[in-house]
Structure formats: C-alpha cells, structure tokens
Amino acid sequence: MAIKSKELAGMLGVSTATMSLVLNHKPGISDELRSSLLARIQEMGYGYMIKEEPQELQEGSPAPMKNIAYLVMSDYQDEGDEAAFFPPVIEGAEREARHLGYHFSIIHMYDEKGSRLRDSIRREEYAGMLVYADVMSQELKKELDAMDIPYVMLDCYDPFVKASSVTVNSQQGIYTAVRYLQEKGHREIGYVATGTARSSLLERRRYFHYAIEDLGLQLNREHDIVTNCRGAKAQEYLELLWKGGVKPPTALLVENDVLAIPVYRALKSAGYRVPEDVSVIGFDGRSICSIMEPTLTTMRIPRRLLGRSLIMLLHNKIDMKARSMEDIPVRLEINAELVEMESVCPVTWK
C-alpha cells in the first residue's frame, strides 16, 4: 500500500521537511544522514518514493555517453539467496555512474574463461570496468590488464596480486562481532562457514581466528565448523553434528545472514534455543534479519555506499589513465556496522 512522505517521516523519526530533502535530493542535511535515510527507505520497501537523482556533471567529470561495464565472473546468481546481496551494490554503483556521466551495463561472463575477455569486451566500447570474481589470481589479472581498460575489483582481494579493489573490512567487522560477544560474557564462541572458496569469505574466517587469539579466548576445534554446503544440506549437516554428541558453544558467529537460517533450524531441531542457549550473529545486514525468529543480530555492510565507492575509485583511475599518470593499486575498505537485534543474550558464568 502506498504511503505519504509525512507517514514515512514519522516511521523514521524525522521531520517532514527533512524527508522532503531526502526524497528530492535537495541540500540542507548532512551526507551521512542522507545516506542513512536513503538506505533505510530502500530496506523498508519504499524506494519507489525516491525521485530520480539529477544527472548534474561536475567540473572534471567525463563527457556523457561513456560506458562502464559491471563484469560478473562468478556463479553467485546460481546460488539463489546469495544473489540477493548484490542489487543494492549495483544500485549504488549505477546511481554514482549516472551522476558522473557514464552509462552502466551489466555483463555476465560466469560461463566463460578469462582468456575470452578480449574477444567479448572491446576496449573502445568501455571507459572502465567493475569486476566481480570469486578469487583474484595472477592469471585473471593478466587477462584484465591485457584489455587496457581501467578496472576495479568488487570485494575480491589478494595481497600478492596488484589490483585495485573496494572490499568489506572483514578484520574490523569480525573483530567487532567477537568482541561484542565477549563483552556479553561469552567465552565459548564458534564459527560456521560454508567452505565456499570466495576470497572475502575465506578472509572472514581467517580474521575470526585472529580475533579469538587476540582477545585471549580459546577456540574448541569442534566449534570451528565448515559445512561445505548451504541451505537444507547445511541444516542436515549441523543437525547430525549437534545431535551426535557435539555440544554447540554459547555463541556462534555465522559467515553470512543466509547461512544463519539453517543454523537456527538445526539448533531448534537439536533442542537448543536462540538466544537462551546459543546466541547467533550473522554478517552482511540483509533484510531477512528483521523477519527471522528471533530477529538476527548482524554486521551490516553499507552496500549502496560500497557500490558508489567502486565507481568513485574507478572514475579516478580513468582520469589518471587519460592523463598518463602512474596507476598505483589501491584497496579501499568499507567498515561494517553492528546491528543489535534479538539473537544475542548475555551469559553469566558461575
């Protein structure tokens, strides 16, 4: 049901004047408040109320009609619920691209090899590329470099491969989550991973081990769980684990919010309550967190900001190339924000 901007303002706890400035992209409020309100409006399903952002070109912006390709070199869209993470990233990237005078195209190449890139994408057609791949390798970098098109990787990083990227700050996000659980009294903290060979997810697990050690906690090997599957199969795996004699820790940090669903179900099937027996924290900040029972505490990623940051970094690289400046690889990290809901409760040790 459609609502009025006044009603939306009331739901978000702001004045009708502030809401008008946000919906119409008018000056008068801070960028931080504007970004926060725009993100919340989208998450609530009222994005249709936001007017199209003016396509004003700033001084130094590229001429209109230049194209940016969002190149997908991953099977994520075949994973169903995994694909839900990316639309806000794409939306943020597309808005910023239009603002800077670019056209934005999505190109799926997940069934093709990197060696076919030069045959599929012509240098004269694109000013730059955003590239999403599971893992950044020297082989992929070689193929991308050979195209002579500026590019930025999305949430994909390898310290030994010199390629610019915008990623989630996994160290900050995971460390914040573990420390939060520790402050709630938890000393037995576990981790649940899918085992997906995606660089960003492998990084999250690695930093979980770092946080546990740095905060003076001990990790039981039985609580460091890799399901090697998702959905119903992950639930079945966890049920067998917890019904088979392995007692879960008092708290679990889950690789992403989607995996928290089979974790919830498996805990319930094994006779454990969330959060009374086992507290659970997710990662990503997806909309499903607010409809889970109980609602899921999570580390929220500002995905639209992630998308806009990709374009801003790429725009800078395009400008540097046009002026024959040296291209220095840059890694820009976006912090995650702890969103407290109902899936964590304190523990009192006797």
From TrEMBL:
Signal peptide (residue range): none
Gene Ontology MF: a single term: DNA-binding transcription factor activity
Domain HTH lacI-type: 2-78
Gene3D superfamilies per UniProt: 3.40.50.2300, lambda repressor-like DNA-binding domains (1.10.260.40)
Keywords: DNA-binding, Repressor, Transcription, Transcription regulation
Protein name: LacI family transcriptional regulator
